[in-house]
Amino acid sequence: MGVVLEIIATLVDEIVVGNLFTDEVFAAVNLITPYTILEVFIAYLASVAGAALIVRAHGAGDHKKMCELFSQTIIVCGLCGIALASIYVIFTPQLVRFVANDPSVYDNALSYFMVMRFYPLVDIFDTFMFAYVLYRGGFIHFYIAIICRIGINVLLSIQLGSQMGLMGIGLASILSLLIALLVKLTFLFSKKHGLKFVWYLNPKEALRVAMLGFPESAISIFVVIMEFGINSFTLKNYGAAGVAGVSVVINIFEFTFYLSEGISEFELVSVNDSIGKNSSRCMDLSIKKTLRAALIEGALLMGLIFLASSLLPEAFDIDNAETAALTSLMLKIFAPTAIFICLTRITAIFYQYTERLPRTITILGLGIAIFPIAFGMLLGQTSEVGIVVGMTLGPTMAFTLMYLFVRLIKREKLFDYTLMHLD
Questions:
Q1: Which of 390, 103, 392, 377 is nearest to 240 (CA)?
Q2: Cβ(149)–Cβ(201) below 8 Å
Q3: What is the mean pLDDT of the chain?
Q4: Closest CA to 352 of 340, 364, 342, 341
Q5: Closest CA to 375 of 245, 238, 226
Q6: pTM as predicted
Q7: Neighbours of 90 (CB within 10 A)
Q8: What does the alpha-carbon distance between residue 3 and residue 371 come to, in Å, rounded to a whole number?
């Protein structure tokens, strides 16, 4: 449920923009999304594996190591935030032109990015605290933080968006995220959950954290590639109206993939705690729960997307009736993919933290980026519907091919932990 709220928070800008402005403005905001997702990639690379290793150290009862990993991650997050924001500030016009090189969307995209280029200064810290608080069981702090973020962002976006346009909406996003981060930081005030900050930075260990976290952080870079590829192809062939319709499906694609994070994060915590305790039995129980949950969630999401397909275009305020009807049809086509998205996500997380990183990169890269773009461009030559059909084939083909590879070539079970050396 926490991840559901987190995803809703990320969609506030698109929803407010869709209701306050035209389809062209909505398209412009979505064209900038790859840069905000790139921030998530950097944040996950710097911090999420660090939070997982803190859990592993907790399972082993090593409090000193927990403090070192916590402190190192805070330092790395700060350095990464400053570096990425600096790049965005220096190369603002070039970066906007790269994704929105069209007169109908360039000015609006530039206006929005003028504020959002400072987002990494807060977002990277928030991503680490998001992981740390959830991994340590701080659900109450997280819920309070995310509800504050959503409520404040909605109110400020409507108010500032009406007065300042897209710059006001971007400013509302930063302010609401900063308040949410401050709420999460209160979790550290507890002696049970807080960790002492020490000036600690081990380059080799930081590199190991980055290498272990890269596959999961690659989800974000794969989403960037997918969004850029699909949006560029759609803009070129079907114009801004086509981008508006397909963007709704892309948002639901991302919504479904990030929503499955709720289950995969449970799996991640259990796997690392089991490794710390050197317990294969605990890992076996975790995998069984995760697999059942993924199948149930995938089926429920499929039903919800199908039932909500006629309402979602209105939620994003698609103005053109023909585009809205086409978007509704595309969502119905996309709905069954939810099951394979959930299965792809939990399979990737299992392989990542049992250190089979090539498998993780392969299944995520194929499922999120390579297959959706390739099939989308191939089948999208005739209509926008073909683009969405191609997108649905991505996770479905990726999971199927990985299953066949593991069972027929490697002669293993899909979730086979017996070959892993616990240390």
A1: 103
A2: no
A3: 83
A4: 364
A5: 226
A6: 0.68
A7: 10
A8: 26
